[in-house]
Amino acid sequence: MNRLLTLCLLLVMAGCDCGKGRVVGASNGAIQVNLIGVEPEGVTLAVAVIGPSSTQEKSDLIATLPFALRVEQLMPATYVVRASSVNSAGGVLQTVEQPGVMVSTGGVTEVTIDLSKRQVVVPAETCDGLDNDEDGEVDEAIDLPVCVICQGGMMIGASDDARCGAIPCNGLDHVDVHGDLSPGGEATCVANRHGPMMTARCAGPQACAAPNGPFCPEGTDTLLATKRVCESMINCESGRPVIDRVANGTPCGSLKVCDNGACVVVDAGVMIDAGLPEVDAGVVDRFGCADGTREGFQSLTSYPAIAGCSGAWTIPGVTAASAPGCGRASGNTGTNREGVGCSSADLCSAGWHLCRGKDEVAMKANNSCADAVPAGAAASSLFFAVVQNSVNNTTCDSSTSNNDVFGCGNLGIQLQAAKNCGPLNRALASTQAGSCGFNEAEPNLGPWQCVGGAMSHLAEGAIVTKSGCPNSSCQYDGNAVGNSDKGGVLCCRD
């Protein structure tokens, strides 16, 4: 009310009424009490206007509400207005006082009182271009719907409203691969994240924008991982990319393969540098393994003429291996992983053969089986067989006998120097029929099988297959084992 009084002082010279703008006289003013509430027993409204030098009183029977009673002929000044309700016996029921009521020259100042609540009623400010609450300000502090503002006495839609809060946009987040995921390419895994809307949050009057809408801010890219040549990347779309080095011998371009993380050229010149006859690299398969991946002697530059090839076969034998039976479709990454209808020779590429015993392995593997098992391979996980003859007692010889299965790896009986098998370091050898003689190689732990007649323990090399764990039905060390697991054969370039 003090702001009203200040404004009234400024308007006195104009002869204006600070309440409703009515002129009542040349020099005197008036106070009008508007009654909007009274207890049922109240029948009379009594008003006392207390001024600096005098008090004027007036009363009247209360008619239909709202009811007005005016006290006139008041000198311009500031007054205290006391309003009371009186019952029929003359008793005062309620009283409300309002100090600081200014009377201006020729004006009427209105005071609205609710005696039932014992309070002066301040009119609510509305969006109409007027000073409804008579505080000297227009259209201020109005309780408006969300995304609505009062402008020029009219309610219009707003473009932004802090009451909408932070509108989420994370439903637009996505993670994408950019680039070439092939072994010969490079790629990145990039997350695009969206922060919340903090501006332009109104979709229209009384409506905040919906989450994840078209007016969300641009997303910010974050690099999660980078895949380089001779690396693989999986699980990018989940936001948890995994980068790993691809196997040695994986093609990474024309006449190029991956070798310990580098994409290297493999052609006839490389074979010449390795002391091998020059051949047409387009005719002779450079990987050695028919499925294009090596599991033993993985470095193609270090071992261009020998490869450890994992896979399965059902046609018996390594020492008396038949010709390929399934079009070289076998191998642990081949199209015939169960090895059905395949021989051990199907694991080798065209231009390669099962290594012919210890002497050929010594020449093409630098006289060592050390790199037949890659670093980090699990124990008892790989055995690569070769065509090595033996008569008895797991001893390598130059006979045509087929006793035992010899090779390189970390699975099988470990060969001692006295067995005359160097550089071969492992063998599968049994003393009873129908067995390869090494528990961790055979079902239910592995797929190697030496099934035959009563004398089969003297001919494992001629009857051995890798078919004892079809559809990964075996288990070793808590992991499923299939026919193409636990190794295969060593292949040597022709």
Topology:
Blueprint: H1 2-11, E1 29-37, E2 44-50, E3 55-61, E4 67-74, E5 77-86, E6 92-103, E7 108-114, E8 119-120, E9 148-151, E10 154-157, E11 174-179, E12 187-193, E13 202-204, E14 207-208, E15 220-227, E16 231-234, E17 242-245, E18 251-253, E19 256-259, E20 262-265, H2 268-273, E21 306-310, E22 352-354, H3 357-364, E23 383-386, E24 405-409, E25 413-414, E26 426-428, E27 448-449, H4 460-463, E28 465-466, E29 474-476, E30 479-481, E31 488-493
Features:
494 residues; 7-stranded mixed sheet; 4-stranded mixed sheet; 6% helix; 31% strand; rod-shaped
Model description:
There is one protein chain. 6% of the residues lie in helices and 31% in strands. The longest helix is centred in the first third of the chain and has 10 residues, at 2-11. A hairpin with a 4-residue loop joins strand 2 and strand 3. It has 494 residues and is mainly beta. Strands 21, 22, 23, 24, 25, 26 and 31 form a seven-stranded mixed β-sheet that branches. The protein has a four-stranded mixed β-sheet with strand order 4-1-7-8, with no helix packed on it. The model is unreliable at 1-25 and 267-284 (pLDDT under 50). It has helices at 2-11, 268-273, 357-364, 460-463; strands at residues 29-37, 44-50, 55-61, 67-74, 77-86, 92-103, 108-114, 119-120, 148-151, 154-157, 174-179, 187-193, 202-204, 207-208, 220-227, 231-234, 242-245, 251-253, 256-259, 262-265, 306-310, 352-354, 383-386, 405-409, 413-414, 426-428, 448-449, 465-466, 474-476, 479-481, 488-493. The protein folds into three domains: 2-120, Domain of unknown function DUF4458 (Immunoglobulin-like, Sandwich), CATH 2.60.40.3540; 170-245, no CATH class; 251-493, no CATH class. The radius of gyration is 50 Å and the shape is rod-shaped. It contains four helices and 31 strands. 38% of the residues are buried.
